[in-house]
Amino acid sequence: MWAHLDCYAYAYLDGAMMVNAVAANLLGEAADWVTNLHDEGSPELHINLFMEQLRGQFEDESRVLMAEKEIHRLRQRGCPAKEYLCEFRSC
User: What stretch of H or E contains 6?
Assistant: First the structure.
């Protein structure tokens, strides 16, 4: 969903249409959450606040931590990716 909005945000006329597109694809607890926001006329229905709140409520923190660990373990030509990047930038 995040990648879709990053790539196709231009296809929506406004933020409300983006929120509706995302909300239409939510299930379970997330669908209940967005229904409550809608019923309350919540300011979180503005696309930027909505996405921030959605991430905060439902993003899997363990998945984020695992991805960060993987990034730190990346190696290029036998050295940590960070060192490789510094070497690449100095060229």
Answer: helix 2-8
Beta bridge partners of 76: 79
Beta bridge partners of 75: 80
Q: Does the predicted model carry a pTM greater than 0.70?
A: no
Q: Radius of gyration (Cα) for the chain, nearest Å?
A: 19
Inter-CA distances, 70 with 19, 28, 64, 67, Å: 31, 30, 10, 5
Task: Give the per-residue SS3 of 38-51.
Answer: HHHCCHHHCHHHHH
User: What is the tens place of the pLDDT at every residue in 3-49?
Assistant: 788 888 889 898 889 888 989 988 898 899 989 988 888 877 888 88
Handedness of CA 9, 15, 18, 22 (dihedral sign): positive
